[in-house]
Design brief:
Elements (H helix, E strand, L loop, with lengths): L15 H7 L7 H9 L5 E6 L7 H4 L3 E8 L2 H13 L6 E5 L14 E5 L7 H11 L6 E7 L17 H12 L4 E2 L2 E2 L8 H8 L3 E7 L4 E5 H9 L13 H15 L4 E5 L3 E7 L1
Parallel strand pairs: 1-2, 1-4, 2-3, 4-5
Antiparallel strand pairs: 5-11, 6-7, 8-11, 9-10
Helix pairs in contact: 1-8, 5-7, 6-9, 8-9
Protein name: Class I SAM-dependent methyltransferase
Keywords: Methyltransferase, Transferase
GO molecular function, one term: methyltransferase activity
Length: 278
Amino acid sequence: MTDPWQWDETLFAGTAPHYRRGRLPYAPGLPESLAAELGLDGRGRLLDVGCGPGTLALPLAHLFREVVGVDPDPGMLAEAERDASGRGLTGRTRWVRARAEQLPDGLGEFTVATFGNSFHWMDRARVAATVRGLLRPDGGAFVHIADLKTGARSAEGLPHPAVPGAAVADLVRRYLGPVRRAGRGLLPDGTPGGEDEVLARAGFPHRRRLVVPGGQPLERTVDDVVAGVLSMSYSAPHLFGERLGAFEADLRRLLHTASPAGLFSERQPSTEVRIWLN
């Protein structure tokens, strides 16, 4: 029987330099949709939990007076701080190295707490209860943001081949084994769902849902796709050890065979937003 998976600090080790280039962005219109749904006017405070390199926090920063991003990975926070400086947001952003389960004292009260594809990595009941205590009692919002899992994203009609996802996944398995890797452990059953039940038990009585539509055509280079693979927890660079160079060479050969021009087409995923109010 496989031991239960436990978080460790290597989960995203080495992925930060690849993250921004490799991950597809959230759907255009997400900040505007969130602002309209929650009445955001630039005066509140945002807590982004599991912020990574600021992928979500920085595009939302103009909606708040202050943004606090929390992440346990120092590489992610360094990327976030660098990008915030480039956007002229240093004075409005703060980056805190901590696990969500160990949020430090003194963070203050927040209007909104966001979790962008991060909540499933956490002790969700503990984090939900802690974050509820940090949110405004009169309508503070716990916001879960992720790519919409339903709906086809065919590249049909676009100018370049689709990314050969199944072949890439097979290559990762050849190097790392058949069971999904996650830090130093294995994750055979994937990450958990059921956020509604978790948040209800934590005392969030109201839920809203909105979908920000995607579907826009995207052009991706071989370098973009390689970065995407190396940004994932299950194919993080450190997992390959001394074979990282060989894996990347095989991956590039696979991609150039699929598209000799070195270009791929994808469609922007839609973004699902679920909101629980205090």
